[in-house]
Specification:
rod-shaped, mainly alpha, 2% strand, 12 helices, 74% helix, two-stranded antiparallel sheet
């Protein structure tokens, strides 16, 4: 048996139910509180320069609807709670009203800020649209300018190619003319160099010829005078490199001795008969000529006399010509003199060849 005393019905304070007039106020306050909680706890709005997010707004509306569906259970819970004294309820309602007012003011300010941000976002969206249209216009202008620039570049490239072709042709002609001019000038320079070289060679030969002539006239060896000519020196002169050449003065001085030897070779010798000896003496006494030719008489004497006169006149070739007509005995007697005279004549001929470049 249960000994616990049951509570006295008279001592239990009666439960007070809410005034039906207060119920709409509480419902509105709850909805407002939920709205304020949503606004204060939701993430911050994007910057004004960002575009308006329709998906985010849909999510927020869905959250509000969910909060609204949660209100009836909470209101029922409030209705089922025991009621206290009216003064405490009024004080709580006053505090709740003040809190709701503060929340309404904050919500109003937040809504104004949100409206301003939405307006700025819409303005930014319009500005972005205008910028997009302007960008499209600029792109069209750029495309047109690019096409015009390409056409101008193509035309300029064609003109430049034509001008380059003409310039290359003109340059080729000028180069050909310059090459022809240079070839002509080079040929002239080479010809002049050849003439200068020939003149220099001739000058060297003339200088050497003068030195050789001086040495030849003085009877000195010709080796030093012939040195500049090298291997081009004539053999008629190189034979006197170290040997003194004969001079015309020495030949004149030795001519009489050679002539006497030639005459002595023509005297009647021992062993001749009386008739031959008499004939030789008669030919020496009587001379018969036919022009310059001796028909009878002393032919050797006549040739020697003519050779002597030619030698006095300085004509060595003529002198040798006359001596070549001597009889063999007289010629043999004068062979030494004739060889020296012929060597001198050959040397003078070679010397004239040097002078004229032969």
């Amino acid at each position: 048996m249960n000994d616990t005393p049951e509570p006295d019905a008279a001592m239990t304070p009666p439960r007070r139910r809410l005034d039906p007039a207060i119920l709409p106020i509480l419902v509105g306050a709850g909805v407002l509180a939920l709205a304020l909680v949503f606004f204060f706890t939701r993430p911050p709005m994007p910057p004004p320069e960002d575009r308006f997010d329709a998906a985010g707004l849909s999510n927020r509306v869905a959250a509000l609807e969910e909060a609204q569906r949660a209100l009836p259970p909470r209101i029922a819970a409030l209705e089922s709670r025991p009621t206290g004294d009216t003064a405490g309820v009024n004080a709580g309602m006053s505090r709740l009203g003040e809190r709701i007012a503060a929340l309404e003011s904050a919500a109003t300010e937040r809504q104004a800020a949100v409206d301003r941000r939405l307006a700025a976002a819409e303005a930014a969206t319009g500005r972005i649209d205008r910028l997009t249209e302007r960008q499209a216009t600029i792109d069209a202008k750029l495309d047109s300018a690019s096409q015009d620039q390409e056409r101008r570049l193509s035309a300029a490239e064609g003109q430049i190619a034509q001008r380059l072709t003409a310039a290359e042709a003109q340059a080729t002609q000028r180069v050909a003319a310059l090459e022809q001019n240079l070839t002509t000038r080079l040929a002239a320079i080479e010809a002049r160099e050849q003439r200068l070289a020939a003149a220099e060679t001739r000058l060297n030969r003339v200088t050497a010829a003068l030195a050789v002539e001086s040495a030849l006239d003085s009877g000195r060896p010709l080796g030093q005078a012939l040195a500049p000519l090298g291997t081009n020196a004539p053999a008629a002169l190189t034979r006197f490199n170290s040997e003194a050449p004969p001079t015309e003065a020495n030949l004149r001085l030795s001519f009489e001795d050679a002539a006497r030897a030639a005459r002595a070779a023509m005297e009647p010798g021992t062993g001749q008969s009386v008739l031959e000896s008499a004939a030789s003496r008669l030919q020496g006494l009587v001379t018969i000529r036919r022009g310059d030719q001796v028909v009878m008489g002393d032919a050797a004497g006549a040739a020697l006399e003519r050779a002597r006169r030619a030698l006095e006149a300085g004509d060595l070739p003529a002198t040798l010509g006359y001596l070549d007509t001597l009889p063999d005995p007289a010629k043999a007697a004068m062979q030494g003199w004739m060889d020296r005279a012929r060597a001198l004549v050959d040397a003078r001929v070679a010397l004239r060849g040097l002078t004229v470049g032969g």
